[in-house]
Design a protein that fits this description.
By secondary structure, the chain is α+β, with helices and mostly antiparallel strands. It contains five helices and eleven strands. Helices cover about 30% and strands about 35% of the residues.
């Protein structure tokens, strides 16, 4: 074998070896970045010097002077209240339908659905679109305030839970989250969207 052929084989072997090393190097780099990110999250501090809150993300909204929260993963969007297309022969709390990004979605006035006193809509009124499985519903709520991580340790149950949740939302509540100066009612989106009342919204007579 000539020296030129040997040199070519060596170069090919070197290239092949380098190609074999690339995936492992990328994996190592990715693992290092993940570890660094984990360390940053674990050592993150708020401006007050307290550990950053780690928990599942919830969207917080208000209704009847109470704060409610729903899992962020179920929220499709938050919209300003726009013109609705009325639908005949349905219960009053179905206010109509809207075209939501190409899909026709029913709009439910959550106050009326929960038998609360209806109030005039304001500049803070929002449409909160929720999806569970294949069902999407837009809810008219008083306002939407923030996205908030809620740690499992903040969620309470038992007698405290029952005493803290208003009766008008209790059938659709998954629990409540207690903070030092704040209490949030956690809405069970599946229980609400697939409730018998929500499924049978045709007006009688």
């Amino acid at each position: 074998m000539s020296s030129e052929e040997k040199s070519m084989l060596q170069r090919n072997a070197f290239v092949a070896a380098q190609q074999l090393k690339i995936p492992s190097a990328q994996a190592a780099l990715q693992m290092q970045r993940m570890q660094d990110g984990q360390l940053q999250r674990e050592s993150a501090l708020t401006a007050e010097g307290q550990p950053a809150v780690i928990g599942e993300q919830y969207l917080v909204f208000s209704l009847a002077d109470r704060e409610l929260a729903v899992k962020a993963e179920l929220v499709q969007g938050v919209e300003r209240l726009t013109d609705l297309t009325p639908v005949p022969n349905v219960v009053p709390w179905v206010r109509g339908v809207i075209n939501l990004r190409g899909s026709i979605v029913s709009v439910v006035d959550l106050r009326m659905f929960l038998d609360l006193e209806p109030l005039p809509h304001t500049s803070r009124t929002r449409l909160l679109s929720l999806q569970h499985n294949d069902m999407v519903i837009c809810l008219i709520v008083d306002s939407v305030s923030e996205m908030l991580p809620i740690p499992a340790a903040a969620i309470i149950s038992g007698n405290v839970r029952q005493a803290s949740i208003p009766p008008w939302v209790s059938p659709y509540a998954a629990g409540c989250a207690l903070f030092p100066n704040r209490l949030l009612v956690l809405l069970d989106a599946a229980r609400l969207l697939f409730s018998e009342k929500m499924q049978r919204y045709e007006a009688l007579g």
